[in-house]
Amino acid sequence: MSGGNRYPRAYILPIHLTPQDKFWGKIRSTDILWVVGAAFMAMWPLIFFGAVWAREGIQMNNRVAKFVTGHPQRTNFVVTIIGTLVRLIVGFLFSQAILRFSQQWMTKRHLNLFHVSLISGFRNQTFPWGVHDLKYLFGPKKMFRVLLLVVCWGTFILIPSGTTSLLSPVPFDKTAPLRGTELDFAPNDHECVNWLNTQTMLSGNCSWSTYSDMEFTTCLSQYQVIDMLQSGRDNMGFLTAKNSKIFDFSQFGPTNGPKFLEPVRGVLPIGRNGFFNTLQSSPLSDQRKLSGILSYNYTLENQGFSTNVSCEYDERSPVVTLFPLTAGVGSSQYFGTTYTGNCTPSGLINVVSNLYTATYSTNSLSFWTCKSPPSSSQASSYYIYLRGLGIYGAQIGNITCTIPPIQSAIYEVTYQSNPDLFSSTEPIQLDATTYTHFIDQYVQAFGQIIANAQNQKANQIAELVGSLGVISFKLSLSERNSTYLRLYEAMIQGMMQYTVTFNRFLYSTYDNRPPSCNRNVTGTLKYRVVGWSVTPIQILLLMPMTVVNLVSFFIMIFVIVNATPGSFESDPTHVKTLAMATHYLDEDESTGWKDCVVYHERYNEVGID
Which range has the top average pLDDT, 255-259, 275-279, 485-489, 564-568? Predict the structure, then answer.
């Protein structure tokens, strides 16, 4: 049937009130279901986001996390399927909301082919027009609706990506506070100071001791000399390359013990990967949590020391070299050398009371040390005297190195599980030191190392410094140079750093020390796990799905509020419904999009009211 505008309005013929309409009144049973579904789909992503955000990430079950880490492609496949299913559910709810809106609209408005195609486009998220229809679509009152459909279409495209980005498990970092204790080498409590001063942890008897499955010696001048010399050599090397080296505590501590990116600075690393694990409960102490951690690092504020050694050439020296050891009575051949010194004429105090004995050589390096009297406000300064004889007379002569009053320093010491390494920063706090006995022990051990390094032809300590000066700085072995002074400064300071660390280790093995000898250590653990993590930008990624669901929700609310009893129940875009409809041509419009459509609802089998 066609011709003319004989049908001014698109009426529904006829309108019948079914038993269902009587039962539900204006509201259909499915309307409530669509409202609840749209509300749920709008809320669950935001609730999930809020839960993850509030907990700063949610860690997955260890087994699931292991699967995710080992099978990333399969994981992406599953998450993508979930995102696609969410897109289908959101699309279905939106389609039902558009359907209900169109069914209410059909009872009150003219309906033409453009309206039908527009409804179909919104329901199916398609663009139902061709290129030849663009002129008509950009006409008055059409452009906004078409653009709205295009925006809707683009929004649906983004829904799977937003869901996938929210649900995809990723490695993310979590943090936890750390608290523990360590030995305090700068206590304010007199009981602790007295205890430190009365303990003799280092001794001349180099015997082996065991503590918590860690084996070590109680002296510096024999087994520990390997690490001590390495620390001094590496510290000199820092003057040349400016690159820190990795120091391995090979002579004490646990097997395959801590590695430290030098300088050590007198710090004794603690924690799960340090010498002593004195930390309180943390994710690292929970084996179940630890098994799910991919990597971690922790930073603690550990105590070390700070000082600046300075050396200079001197004209005089308190070192006295003796040659009392001969091959026999009346023999003029020496097989041993002893050296000593006297600090009293300079107003200083002798640190060493015994004589040092070394192999006799005409090319020797001898040693003595003194310290200034301590005062109530300042600790002692230490003076190391080196005297070179023979081939070392020109290069070394007399060198005096000053160790000013050391300061207790707090360093941020960080452990990284990859590459299994400790490192420290510059000091963040400096305090006066109330205990300096370990410096006495260091200078005594340093003198013994110099004596032990002597052989009949040369001294290995002097050779170590001299060879580095020649190779790295192109210096002459027969001339004095300020660079040699810098090298001795670095060597002395590096060896002293190791000594303080070793002393701290020895004192820490004493379990019955006063509680006041423990200082509290605080820090932060940062560890990486697999799970769900979100950032503020995630809200933007969820906006497409949230907007579509809210539109569906409010459309259904509008339909429920404005529902008309006996409204059209069929899909106006369905092929059967269109086949039963009557088409009225609009003779004033050549495109055909304004042609009216009149739908005919089938009579209900129950009957007519």
Answer: 485-489
CB atoms near residue 165 (< 10 Å) = 16
CB atoms within 10 A of CB 433: 20
How many Cβ atoms sit within 10 Å of the Cβ of residue 302? Answer: 26
- Phi/psi at 302 (5° precision): -90, 155
Lowest mean pLDDT among 17-21, 31-35, 75-79: 17-21
Side-chain half-sphere exposure of 116, counting CA atoms within 13 A:
21
- Per-domain boundaries in the chain: 22-172+536-564, 175-306+409-433+491-530
Q: Give the separation between CA 365 and CA 451, rounded to whole angstroms.
A: 8
Q: How far apart are CA 119 and CA 104, in angstroms?
A: 13
Give the rounded distance of the alpha carbon of 282 from its chain centre.
16
Q: How far apart are CA 104 and CA 98, in angstroms?
A: 10
Rounded distance between C-alpha atoms, residue 119 and residue 97, angstroms: 11
Amino acid symbol at 65: A
Average confidence score pLDDT of the chain: 82
Confidence of residue 399 (pLDDT cuts 50, 70, 90): very high
For residue 285, give the DSSP letter. Answer: G
Residue 535 neighbours by CB under 8 Å, 6+ apart:
none
- 296: three-class secondary structure by DSSP: strand
State how far the Cα of 27 lies from the Cα of 514, in Å rounded to an integer: 80
How many CB atoms lie under 10 A from the CB of residue 6? 10
Q: Which of 381, 396, 391, 379 shows the shortest CA–CA distance to 465?
A: 396
Three-state SS letters, 479-536: CCCHHHHHHHHHHHHHHHHHHHHHHHHHHHCCCCCCHHHEEEEEEEEEEEEEEECCCC
Cα dist from 160 to 63, 81, 543, whole Å: 26, 9, 12
pLDDT tens per residue, range 412-453: 999 999 888 999 988 888 887 767 777 888 888 888 888 888
The pLDDT tens digits of the residues spanning 541-573 come to 999 999 999 999 998 998 888 776 656 666 777
> Residue 250 and residue 215: Cα distance in Å, rounded?
11
State the average pLDDT over residues 217-234.
Answer: 78
Strand ranges inside 376-464, DSSP E: 382-388, 398-403, 407-416, 421-424, 429-432
497 and 439 Cβ atoms separated by less than 8 Å: no
When pLDDT is averaged across residues 54-62 and rounded to a whole number, the result is 91
Amino acid letter for position 141: K
Global pTM value? 0.74
**What separation, in Å, do the N-terminal and C-terminal C-alpha atoms of the chain show?**
29
* Dihedral angle, C-alpha 457, 463, 464, 468, nearest 10 °: -150
Question: Sign of dihedral through CA atoms 119, 123, 125, 130?
Answer: negative
Question: Measuring CA to CA, which residue among 18, 116, 187, 173 is closest to residue 582?
Answer: 116
Pairing of β 518-532 and β 170-183 = antiparallel
What would the two tokens of residue 468 be? Answer: 């580095």
**At 12, is the pLDDT very low, low, confident or very high (cuts 50, 70, 90)?**
very low
Please choose, from the candidates 316, 315, 337, 317, the residue with its C-alpha nearest in 3D space to the C-alpha of residue 326: 337
In the structure, what pLDDT confidence band is assigned to residue 243 with cuts at 50, 70 and 90? Answer: low
pLDDT in tens, 172-205: 999 999 999 999 988 888 888 888 877 765 555 6
